[in-house]
Design a protein that fits this description.
The chain is α/β, with parallel strands linked by helices. The protein has one domain: Carbonic anhydrase (Beta-carbonic Anhydrase, Chain A), CATH 3.40.1050. It has eleven helices and five strands, in the order H-H-H-H-E-H-E-H-E-H-H-H-H-H-E-E. Strands 2-1-3-4-5 form a five-stranded mixed β-sheet, with helices on both faces. About 40% of the residues are buried.
């Protein structure tokens, strides 16, 4: 068994598509990553998750390795839904990814600031907006639900509700599964667009090729993550 010191010195970061790394990336390993390689790594991890072949990270050593610093690969903006365990979905462990969570996976000043820190300051290479099937926040927005501070949050999803076409007024509600799923996807696309629009920092990093900003959808039925086609920056 290699000592912790030896394993910190000898690169152990797994290449995209391979098994779980023994330790999270070091500063040098993170710097060598590209947005494409990180996205490939995330999708490969999701494939393992779907197949029930996730790996077990060495938690004790990962805690020790990250106690003095962190160099994650990506920032995932996800919904708070308990059925979407983000690190597990991508077969990642302590120190591998940043995760921002808010009902409906919507963009906000707080989330933008967090993403700017994760990428510009901490070096993450991918920013992913991750929506999911049967999102309760989206359903609430479809029905115009109101409840305390939740009302203002759901207002941020309303543009996606209004942007979805091809449905009659009496079909635009949470009981219509097809409409809900269309709004969920539209919400991801609009959030990606809002990230680029409202964060010059992130938009400039993407133009320079330092990061990728992508949208994706998670299936509650089979655990798959599917990338959503969004206009290029």
């Amino acid at each position: 068994m290699k000592s912790l010191l030896t394993r910190l010195i000898i690169p152990s970061f797994a290449l995209a598509g391979t098994a779980f790394a023994d330790l999270p990336p070091t500063a040098e390993q993170q710097k060598a990553l590209t947005p494409d390689s990180v996205l490939q790594d995330l999708m490969a991890g999701n494939k393992r998750y779907m197949q029930g072949k996730t790996t077990t990270p060495n938690i004790t050593e990962r805690i020790a390795a990250t106690s003095t610093g962190q160099f994650p690969k990506a920032y995932i903006l996800s919904c708070v839904d308990s059925r979407v365990p983000v690190e597990l979905v991508f077969d990642q462990g302590i120190g591998d990814i940043f995760v921002g969570r808010v009902a409906g996976n919507v963009e906000s000043v707080d989330q933008l600031g967090s993403a700017e820190f994760a990428t510009k300051v901490a070096g993450a290479k991918v920013l992913m907006v991750l929506g999911h099937e049967a999102c309760g926040a989206v359903k609430g927005a479809c029905d115009g639900a109101e409840l305390g501070n939740l009302t203002a949050l759901l207002d941020q999803i309303e543009p996606a509700v209004k942007a979805v076409e091809g449905f009659k007024d009496d079909q635009k509600n949470s009981k219509n599964k097809e409409f809900v799923e269309a709004v969920i996807e539209k919400n991801v696309k609009l959030t990606v667009a809002d990230v680029r629009k409202n964060s010059p920092v992130l938009a400039e990093m993407e133009k320079a090729g330092d990061i990728k900003i992508v949208g994706a959808l998670y299936s509650l039925h089979d655990g798959s993550v599917t990338l959503v086609k969004t206009p290029a920056n």
